[in-house]
Amino acid sequence: MDAMPQAAPAKAVDGSRLLIVDDDAAFGQRLARAMEKRGFVTDVAESAQDAGHMAERNPPDYAVVDMRLGDGNGLEVVERIRRRKPDARAVILTGYGNIATAVTAVKLGAVDYLAKPADADEVFSALTREVGERPEPPENPMSADRVRWEHIQRVYEMCDRNVSETARRLNMHRRTLQRILAKRAPR
């Protein structure tokens, strides 16, 4: 597969269209409000299919796309957006990061790959960073225990706080999960 053209340098965002694609509706709406305060005109899609239709009708200048969507893969959404608008700048968000998907995301034209939970400042910085400009390393990177705890919490919320279903998805004993959930978040 041919590599997509590189994204253009960051430009002024006033009035630029931003497509946010995340199957967590509350997160998508919060991020949309935060990005509107920074000058974007936002659209929110909760599925790969909706995002694809939006990208076909009116390709965005910028996109923030969750890696795992209920009906597809965020990488496919980025690829579709970049086909319609090669200079679009996309950022992938994921709670399931690994090196292979990060490399694939960049090859498909994403300008950055951020781990959830990412705040609006991190997303804005990634979207507007100049090509070739390197991000600052985190001041306080999360410990491995904290990353694990965040992942468990996310799966727990995806399962509507159902301990048995969460334990099944995490391949973990229910009592072990209950003990983890009862503790405070590690630093």
TrEMBL record:
Span of domain Response regulatory: 17-131
PTM sites of type 4-aspartylphosphate: 66
GO BP field: regulation of DNA-templated transcription
GO molecular-function terms, A-Z: phosphorelay response regulator activity; transcription cis-regulatory region binding
Pfam family, one: Response_reg
GO terms for cellular component: cytosol; protein-DNA complex
Keyword Transcription regulation: yes
Keyword tags: DNA-binding, Phosphoprotein, Transcription, Transcription regulation, Two-component regulatory system
The name this protein goes by in its record: Two-component system response regulator
Native organism: Acuticoccus sediminis
